[in-house]
Queue: 2 jobs
Job 1
Amino acid sequence: MDDAFAKTTTFLERVDIAPAEIVRRTSTCWNGIVAENIEFTRREPISYRLQPRGHMLIISERQTRDEGETSIEGLPKSTLHEFSHKLSFVPAGHQFYGWQKPRVLPRFTYLHLDPKSRLLESELRFSEVELRPRLFFFDQNLWDTALKLKAQAGQDNGSAYTEALALVIAHELIQLERGFQPALEVRGGLAPWQKKRVAEYIEDHLGEDISLGTLANVIRLSSYHFAHMFKQSFGEPPHRYVTGRRILRAKSLLEGQMTITEIGRALGYVETSSFTAAFRRSAGLTPSSYRRQLGQIGGGA
């Protein structure tokens, strides 16, 4: 058992693959999630079995077999021969087993998620969500996010990016369970983790042109749904919120020594006149007048 699994045995166990000597495993552990990459060194008949304590998402990048069957408790067995570029989901406590005679050397990844981890529980109450098993399905958003997380293996295990990807995976699993119905957007707007992520993105990119599509993509929603949910959560449309945050940042910068032109450019305004007009609409006076009220010397426009 490698270090990643040694750290996480409270919620998961390895899939038992036989014969073990032809399997090459590499694992990376993050907060509440482990990515286990599986490659085979020889093309021989194999079997596999597990009853996971946590949830498990299987990314089958290359899987073609001449014979075999795969089963997840609660679903009919599958004898599908070609299931490259497919996903499978094994909820906690469901038996997963199968065997096959591979036509090519299999390559896949097990993503183990701890539904009770601090990250997933505090943001999504993930342990309270009932998720059904799914065998050999495909969802583009989930596939793309899972591959992004896999690509982080061996890198900074404590990065905020990997935690964000884990949250997105959990959220997309919930969306799948709910059939992509807009239940999450009707009441309460954005989920807490979505609201936090969008707000942080805006604060970090105030000097850029932040489009509605860009913000929606941050949490993988359509622009239409995002705009509706954002207004419910923040009390105003995205463009008005972004402008308000820029003006608030401008007020802070006006207390320093930057010129008004420099402040405008730092906040994404190409022309000083555009910055002045936006500031006046929001604050009721020009940047120069605001600075004078602070008792400071104007930096010049």
Job 2
Amino acid sequence: MKILNLYAGIGGNRKLWGNEHEITAVENNQEIAKIYQDFFPNDKVIVADAHQYLLEHYKEFDFIWSSPPCPSHSKFRFMTTKMVNESQKRLVIYPDMNLYQEIILLRHYFKGMFVVENVQGYYEPLIVPQKISRHYFWSNFNINPIKINQDNLIKKHHTALSVSRGFDLSKYKLKHRKDTILRNCVIPELGLHIFNCAFNNKQNSLFALSVPSEQKESKP
């Protein structure tokens, strides 16, 4: 099976998928892409704009996972723009609509299985997602409920995060903060659960074909 892993980071979502598939990972930060390649030497890693790569190559894959950048949608960043201390207030920014462009493109043009992941936003989502813990997921298959231990990521040091995410970054000298890189990882167990929902459960895999679109959008 050919898999496209967009905005791959260091590969939190992909960590438990195994090595029997042909996986292409796209990450625009060369430093982070190098770490991904170290952890997953069998994957093809491309340093590029994931949003543009999706548009040009979506037909080549059987399964696509996309995790577009979340800061412009997140509740946390929204709250920091409202801080009383004006000197610490962040600039107000537009929500990045690349997120919804990708959902619409995949829903209407892509013939394989897909999932688009993001954090729960500060606004009501424009397209109804499925929800797990602090995440939104837009997909063309049903994602079974699962309980995920979401510890306090903000307060955790990168050493503790390395243990919880299963990525040892101790040997790397990085421009980016290691704790930030690790916080941006999808929890590997959650990535595996969603992958299994797409392919290991026939009922879930047939969900997109058998259920009317309005009913799928109301699915929790």
